[in-house]
Design brief:
By secondary structure, this protein is mainly alpha-helical. The protein has 6 helices and 2 strands; from the N terminus they run ααααββαα.
Length: about 160
């Protein structure tokens, strides 16, 4: 659906997905799966889209189509791999950093969580913090910046 919303005509296909990544493990499995699926659709249809577009399409599928309250980090990390610096505000630039010598471990703690449960709580805390800051005696330039943020984002996520 995310491809179609962008005006692409997607040929029909069958997909079989198998994963042993634990659900709700904090490993970004949903974003990674959507990047993989978007990349397959891209290849099958010959769209020749780059990794940034794959990340955006995967984000749009998860956030806009499936209505999951998520950010872009998992999709961008999956699309680019490596060690990256991801700018999370438009235009969502990504800088791939040089690889380092060493060992990277992923450990499953067994603690499960849901983005749909956690994100709204954190957003509510941020919104409350912004409101409290605006109720304080703060410099006018800071008040204007915070006011613009709260006016643009609070209650719209």
């Amino acid at each position: 659906m995310a491809f179609i919303k962008r005006g692409y005509s997607v040929n029909s296909f069958r997909a079989w997905i198998r994963s042993n990544v634990p659900i709700a493990s904090g490993l970004g499995s949903s974003g990674t799966l959507l990047v993989a699926l978007a990349s397959a659709i891209n290849a099958i249809n010959g769209f020749n889209l780059d990794r940034k577009n794959m990340a955006e399409i995967a984000y749009e599928a998860e956030h806009d189509v499936m209505n999951i309250p998520c950010g872009r980090l998992d999709q961008y990390a999956a699309a680019f791999g490596n060690i990256v610096v991801i700018e999370t505000k438009p235009p969502y630039n990504v800088e791939v950093l040089p690889r380092l010598n060493g060992v990277f471990l992923v450990v499953d703690t067994g603690i499960r969580h849901s983005t749909a449960d956690i994100h709204p709580k954190r957003q509510q805390e941020i919104d409350e913090g912004l409101r409290k800051l605006l109720s304080m005696d703060i410099p006018g330039n800071l008040r204007r910046k915070l006011g613009a943020i709260i006016g643009k984002f609070v209650g719209t996520r």
